[in-house]
Design brief:
The structure is a homodimer. By secondary structure, the first copy, chain A, is of the alpha/beta class. Helices cover 47% and strands 20% of the residues of chain A. The first copy, chain A, has 2 domains: 236 residues, Aldehyde Dehydrogenase, Chain A, domain 1; 149 residues, Aldehyde Dehydrogenase, Chain A, domain 2, CATH 3.40.309.10. Strand 13 of chain A pairs parallel with strand 16 of chain B, so a sheet runs across the interface.
């Protein structure tokens, strides 16, 4: 038995290492393509997914059966499920990525030094990107094609429940690349559900993985950030705040809070904590509270909020640090901008925070002082989305502090190199 | 004894955690300053270092005595040594950093979406930067002030041999900040030579360190990359290549190779491997070889090079992967551009590689295909330096693939956030 286990582990090591080598080779081949080749590949992938819809839906039915037998909850089943409309959505997403400007090779800066050396900062791919995600099959297509748009090779590791659906999608994507005489290994899916495969990816596959992008819940992202030996573009939770200032327009405040919380409660940009200035809480909080309650939202308030709206549950310390992703909202009454800033500094996950006010000076202070990837004035936190930014598509919202913050689209999956052109310059 | 050790370890943990907390607080305070405040602080630091020169030189004498007693070699002693001229150089470096454009708050991009939302990508500091370096006292001033220029708080950990010199420098820098009513904890030096302190920094001091920048030899950087639990802006070795093409101008080739190798052999941009096209090796390699030998360089060639210049030592496989940082050069004869590209792909550390040719088409292929942070045409690899790029100062040359590649100056020590200004927009 020991011998068998060792063999299996050795086999997995070898399988993963070989996958890394193929990804590196594909990444180098991608570097020699031009934008038109990548666009051609993306269009072919969109067509291939459309053509393979019956096979993809059939694979998804099997995933769904297995997931039901495993007792997955309704929300997880919903994320896993595909139907013709959702496959159409995946195809439309790939077509949108095909239509994006190609980010590779563009000159980000160019200047000449007094000695005549000509410097250019030129965008290049990151290389090989390992993407570890949960059981949403659309991520397989989104992530694979965003990597291709940005000249990167992708090693995809999906949640085990979506393996059949993801394989069917990747088969279609790879066939399209092969038919177009492009490197199929630009998009690879880890074939095993063995969790040890994730460990291999996090160790970097002998230097063949340049970046890991985790996309999923807190436990996944935390494991990746703890164990990764290669750089991570991390996506932690969205513990988003909205601060309603004394000089807020009351109707805007109601509309913005309700939209930020209730438009979709399961997305990372949904509101989790409402902060309201004590100066207007007496009059405005009851109106906002009623609008939220009418929309089906549970409120959990601090002591001052509950004096004003006694029907609220009492918030505990834990509520300020909880990403509900559900129709629940924590509510605190604060003393003006400074009170709001102190609460946000203590509790924000650095994702998205918003202020509602008609006072431009207060707004600019909030925008300058809140250190989150996205800060908004008089706008819903639900705009935290690459599409809403005009990026076309995103692989997630980065909450780390290096490389990229906020929506990570094709442009954020690139880096640069310096191209220096001389005429024989030596350094004195 | 056990109890004492535990207490000491617990004390160190507490000391380092407190240092992290002070750095975070200083980082937040820095975020509220404007560019003029940072410039004022930098000018005061330059003046304070100049005024403290006697104390700094006295501390350095003690470091040097201790280092000689420990038997450090001449190269290490040279890096450690200060004299009045070197202190003047440090002051001039800080003054140059004070004169740099402040990178914080600049709008990197701004656009409006059809719904009227106004998006701005605005440069912000990284936060708290931990810098781990070896025994060059000037790094203490360079790194601390580059961090201040870019709005970051610095936690500096110098090599143990330079502790007294670095303390004297940091005392002057902190006094200057205090006198200017700026947060002195923007620049902190780890007070202990206990190596466990580095482990604490790599673990992130309870989330108070945002980025680690290692600056030093391969073993230091590799330890940091292996153990860090926070993002690293890595600086690996410079295994730089120069490819002399068939269509190279012979005199430029000689001048560039000799300059790239011999101007300073101990810097990361110095040439380590010469590749020469077989088409011109018979005539050009003897000339280049003589020029190098006359300049005091030892040559180690592959079989084809040694047929042409039999006096060369034979290169082993190890030579292609060695950063000599010494007057030694590996030499290989290759078959044209493809041969050069294959060698570089196999052996380059992704730092700096150069081509010498008068054929613009071949040059552009080389510049496009070589995937290094810096690629040059008809220019010496010794230009791999932030000052030569016009960055004013650098904390090192990044060889990783995320966040920054090449010289890391003040601008590269920043990230951005998105500021979104609306008029009440909700997301449909």
């Amino acid at each position: 038995m020991t011998v068998e286990t060792e063999n299996t582990a050795a086999d997995l090591t070898e399988t993963m290492r070989a996958m890394g080598g193929r990804a590196r080779a594909a990444s180098r081949a991608l570097g020699r393509l031009d934008a038109a080749d990548r666009t051609r590949g993306l269009k072919a992938i969109a067509a291939a997914i459309r053509a393979a819809a019956p096979a993809i839906l059939d694979a998804n039915l099997k995933d769904m059966d297995a997931a039901r037998n495993k007792g997955l909850d309704a929300a997880m089943l919903d994320r896993l499920a595909l139907d013709e409309g959702r496959v159409d959505g995946i195809v439309a997403g790939v077509e949108a990525i095909a239509a994006l400007p190609d980010p590779i090779g563009r000159e980000m800066a160019r200047w000449t030094q007094p000695n005549g050396l000509d410097f250019a900062r030129v965008a290049v791919p990151l290389g090989v990107i390992g993407i570890i995600y949960e059981s949403r099959p659309n991520v397989t297509a989104d992530a694979g094609t965003l990597c291709l748009r940005s000249g990167n090779a992708a090693i995809l590791r999906c949640g085990s429940e979506s393996t059949r659906s993801s394989h069917a999608l990747v088969d279609a994507m790879r066939s399209a690349l092969t038919n177009e005489n492009l490197p199929a290994d630009a998009i690879q899916l880890v074939g095993t559900t063995d969790r040890a495969a994730v460990g291999h990816m996090l160790a970097g596959l002998d230097g063949q993985v340049d970046v890991i992008v985790p996309r999923g819940g807190r436990s996944l992202v935390e494991r990746v950030q703890k164990d990764a030996r290669v750089p991570v573009i991390g996506h932690l939770e969205g513990l988003c705040h909205m601060y309603v200032d004394a000089v807020a327009d009351p109707q805007k405040a109601v509309d913005l809070v309700v939209n930020a919380k209730m438009r979709r409660t399961g997305v990372c940009g949904s509101l989790e904590t409402l902060l309201i200035d004590a100066a207007v809480a007496d009059t405005l909080l009851p109106v906002i509270g009623t609008a939220l309650t009418d929309a089906g939202c549970e409120l959990r308030g601090d002591a001052r909020a509950r004096v004003i709206v006694p029907s609220m549950k009492a918030a505990t310390e834990e509520d300020w640090g909880t990403e509900y992703l559900a129709p629940v909202l924590a509510v605190a009454v604060v003393d003006g901008l400074d009170g709001a800033l102190a609460h946000i500094e203590r509790w924000s996950s650095g994702h998205t925070d918003s202020i509602v006010t008609e006072d431009a000076g207060v707004a600019e202070k909030f925008l300058a002082r809140v250190d989150s990837a996205i800060v908004l004035h008089n706008a819903s936190t639900q705009f935290a989305d690459g599409g809403e930014f005009g990026f076309g598509a995103e692989i997630g919202i980065a909450t780390g502090r290096i490389h990229a913050r906020g929506p990570v689209g094709a442009e954020q999956l690139t880096i640069y190199k310096y191209v220096v052109r001389g005429t024989g310059q030596t350094r004195p």
